[in-house]
From TrEMBL:
<keyword id="KW-0808">Transferase</keyword>
<keyword id="KW-0408">Iron</keyword>
<dbReference type="InterPro" id="IPR020578">
    <property type="entry name" value="Aminotrans_V_PyrdxlP_BS"/>
</dbReference>
<feature type="domain" description="Aminotransferase class V">
    <location>
        <begin position="122"/>
        <end position="400"/>
    </location>
</feature>
<keyword id="KW-0663">Pyridoxal phosphate</keyword>
<dbReference type="InterPro" id="IPR015424">
    <property type="entry name" value="PyrdxlP-dep_Trfase"/>
</dbReference>
<comment type="similarity">
    <text>Belongs to the class-V pyridoxal-phosphate-dependent aminotransferase family. NifS/IscS subfamily.</text>
</comment>
<dbReference type="GO" id="GO:0031071">
    <property type="term" value="F:cysteine desulfurase activity"/>
</dbReference>
<keyword id="KW-0479">Metal-binding</keyword>
<keyword id="KW-0032">Aminotransferase</keyword>
<dbReference type="InterPro" id="IPR000192">
    <property type="entry name" value="Aminotrans_V_dom"/>
</dbReference>
<protein>
    <recommendedName>
        <fullName>cysteine desulfurase</fullName>
        <ecNumber>2.8.1.7</ecNumber>
    </recommendedName>
</protein>
<dbReference type="Pfam" id="PF00266">
    <property type="entry name" value="Aminotran_5"/>
</dbReference>
<dbReference type="InterPro" id="IPR015422">
    <property type="entry name" value="PyrdxlP-dep_Trfase_small"/>
</dbReference>
<dbReference type="GO" id="GO:0046872">
    <property type="term" value="F:metal ion binding"/>
</dbReference>
<keyword id="KW-0411">Iron-sulfur</keyword>
<dbReference type="GO" id="GO:0008483">
    <property type="term" value="F:transaminase activity"/>
</dbReference>
Amino acid sequence: MADTPNTSSEAGELYLDAAATEPVSPAVIEAMTPFLTEAYANPASVHQPGKTAARALDAARASFAAALGARPDDVIFTSGGTESDNLAIKGIAMARMRKLGLRPVYGLDETDDKQLASSRPRIIISAIEHPAVAQSAAWLHEWFGFEVVRIPVDAQAHLDLDALERELDGEAGERTTMVSTMLANNEVGTVEPVEELVRIAHAHGVPIHVDAVQAAGQIPIRMRDWDVDALSVSGHKFGTPKGLGALLVRGRTPIEPVLSGGGQERGLRSGTQNVAGAVALAIGLNESNARMQAQYRELVASRDMLIDAVRRVVPRADLTGDPVRRLPGHASFVFPGVTGEALLVDLDARGIAASSGSACAIGRHEIPATLLAMGLEPSVAKSALRMTFRRPLAREQIERVSLALEESYAGLTRH
Ligand code: PLP
């Protein structure tokens, strides 16, 4: 648990990896505990304890939905961002494939049948999606012969809206089952123009899923106002235990479940519901939203001070992503001449926990895929460093980071 903002319990370690995960908030632990101890019943049970659990689940669902500008019926509780993305991509694409009268194509990679190739179902994603989306689309290709179209991005990771329009036009557009894009990028923090993306997809009658895992609790989300069809969030990015999340999906959106079973969560996510987890999601998100409202400007100001300080001490450092339309507590750079990995290890030894950008490459130091899609050379993309925080950084913390970076960079480039 955080002792003071942005520090972990390990002697003064400065924790700048909030995009990877956050500590569980004390208010969340307090709110969820009764549902792990005395009010533990299964919310599907008809007895009184079951009804108590069901009421708590309903209340959590309503409060959580409201915090995302959605309705209670939109919410499907899941085990996190990865599951939500899988359910959205596989569930919507397969339901729409059937609705559009398209057939799966098996073994397409082994044939050069052009007619087959031009009749298969399609899915459009962006070139900078998290593996939870990109690999789900790859699975559709592998097992059902989907054509996976990736919309390119510019040098600041903005999606190419004209390319999206083009891909949705004409015969190929009619075979398109869905569009999936992220709201805010995990590696470089750029925020995409969600309302424009929705407008373009809907103009072609295609539903759109938005991965809002990095955005929830950091920037306002108005699912219904934006007219988004499906939206993924993950609790551990806003103060709940890991392994909790939700897919919000409108009743009008065709979708098939990925898990079969007892039919909980509108039949879209079978399995006994995690009442304490739902309570944690509602409390964690509301708490993060309240903090966002109270501290947004201060957080942005401290982020910009950090960016300026880093550029001052390492003039070769380049900010990655959009300098303005980016998440409030997200500062990401490339440091030409060193590897991000060496920098991370060196900073860690100096008590600063940062990241190279993608936490999900377990035990492997991969080149951040977003940076490659933005057109950076692999040798430069390899030098990425991301610093993310949910609370404003104090002046001394910024000085500490810039001093450490100056020394690390000088040390690593000396040889
Ligand atoms: N989508 C994005 C954009 C993410 O950043 C992450 C995790 O970092 C995920 C999905 C996966 O979420 P989870 O860790 O809850 O499975």
